[in-house]
Amino acid sequence: MTEAQEELIRDLEAKAKTIRKNIISMLAEAGSGHPGGSLSSVEIVTALYFSVLRLKPEEPLWQDRDRFVLSKGHAAPLLYAALAERGFFPVDELLTLRKLGSRLQGHPAWGMLPGVEASTGSLGQGLSIGLGMALAGRLDQRDYRVYVLLGDGESQEGQVWEAAMAAAHYRAGNLTAILDYNGLQIDGPIEEVMSPLPLPDKWRAFGWEVREVDGHNFRDLLTAFDWAQKVNDKPSMIIAHTIKGKGVSFMEGMVDWHGKAPDKKMAGQALEEIGAES
Amino acid sequence: MERKISTRDAYGKVLVELGRRYPELVVLDADLSKSTKTSEFAKHYPERFFEMGIAEQNMMGTAAGLALSGKIPCASTFAVFATGRAYDQIRNAIAYPGLNVKIIASHAGITVGEDGASHQSIEDISLMRTLPNMTVIVPADAVETAQAVTAAVEMRGPCYIRLGRPAVPVILGDDYHFQLGRAAVLREGKDAVVFAAGIMVHKALKAASVLEAEGLEVAVVNVSTIKPLDHGTIVKWAKKTRAVVTAEEHSIYGGLGSAVAEVLGEEYPVPVIRVGVKDRFGESGSPDELLTAFQLNTDSLVNAIKKALGRKK
Ligand SMILES: Cc1ncc(C[n+]2csc(CCOP(=O)(O)OP(=O)(O)O)c2C)c(N)n1
Ligand SMILES: [Mg+2]
Fold first, then answer.
1. Exposed, middle or buried: residue A29 (CB in 10 Å: 0-12, 13-18, 19+)?
2. Closest Cα of chain A to B257: distance in Å?
3. Does residue B56 carry a catalytic annotation?
4. Which of A120, A262, B150, B211 is the right S-S partner for B216, CB 3.0 to 4.6 Å?
5. Pick the catalytic residue: B40, B56, B144, B248?
6. Structural domains in chain B, sorted by start
7. Which domain holds residue A128?
């Protein structure tokens, strides 16, 4: 690994820490929201916004930008924290999350906040939207890529598989999906609720190129994104093994922290843990 | 102090009781059992509870198959996903053959709150009301929910019941008797009538009290069965009063307001003021803030009633 790469990874780790802290502060201030699935995807989204995606924050609708669709829309705090950190809007605005009149809606709302690429929140719909963007890019002979982040519970929705089939059918090589494989949804572990396993085999059978990575390891993630950019004749899927609630000891692996906000005291403890983590 | 219970909590409780009485009762949920409160039934009757995962369309189709095989399925999730995501399954696999499936959905309306528009169903009554064979019930409180769910399980055919997320005042006494297809006159009055459903019934009663102090007598009718609609009671009270207002936590298009206007338009044409969500999506905010912002609070109702009275002699 070169010096430059090591520095990039150190930077990404620092960004991830800031984003985690902002997620906790936002949720504590809002008094509701989804910490578990926001925290499990921090490294994935940080790698995308600070290394992978070709963007111009000052020109959010730049036609050649790469697109990112947060299909698991309940992880909105993570998306907002990354967009603010990347300069799409002021970081101060993060604390308006979920409040009346805020541009930071409980689930991403297109057209309200710069950088939000699609309205999501009803699970299972983002991959279809991403496919549409990918097909349009090809028609227009633009070389942008489209990235879609899915939940593992979300992949129980039939539409995900309709989109998977269509993306392979149209050989959407400019489409990459990332699956946050944290093993949990709301009613329990995915295997107990409604098993979507084995995930890699299913995606392969649907005609996708598939890779599995440690979703909290930037080296792994960057290597996988490099690989995905080279898969041009098929859509690519990165299955990211993650821990729900990652970074906050009392949230890690806890199904109960899917959809409730920490109170001020718990948030303080969480912020301390994230700050201390090296 | 007002006693407050959410209608979804009342549902969770009565479902356990009904499970004991009806061995053919089965319950399905789509990864929201803790929110819809079907988790209570799941604890008591795990073998008759089917967790279907985040796959609402499949849940409705499976419910149809269970009904075709003699079961009484209750399928639950948030109202927006129950009626929107699985609409065609409900239409073609459940309503068309008139199957005995109960779609009992929670988190309807804008009082979902902070989750925002994607989760706030403001069109579910409209979607369900337009389907032939479908019965549509919007209970006003916990007491009515328990009775309505029981009635739904005891009738034959498809039924949609709309429940909410927040704890809401219990306004009906234990002597209240829910009758499927009958609107209940909760308060009499000769000046104006408010036809209300769901959480708006409580607000209509409050508005009537406010106006009483101003010397106006406002009748409040709880139209909990939106389909089949109680034409008789609606026409009777439109005739008895000088002004008609409807109130619902739903779009003014296609819901109770539309249903009342349709009946009065054909049977006793009078102006109707519809209080509801005015052709816009919801947004994030606390339930109370939203009710104010969307003009669905007591004050807005008071104003609407006054406006209705000013319009007609
Ligand atoms: C269509 C639809 N059904 C149900 C929900 C409610 N819901 C929100 S998050 C969630 C669980 C998601 O689990 P997963 O995809 O594994 O997300 P993660 O673990 O990454 O948070 C559910 C059922 C929804 N938002 N959309
Ligand atoms: Mg998950």
1. middle
2. 26
3. yes
4. B211
5. B56
6. 4-169 (3.40.50.970), 184-310 (3.40.50.920)
7. 3-276
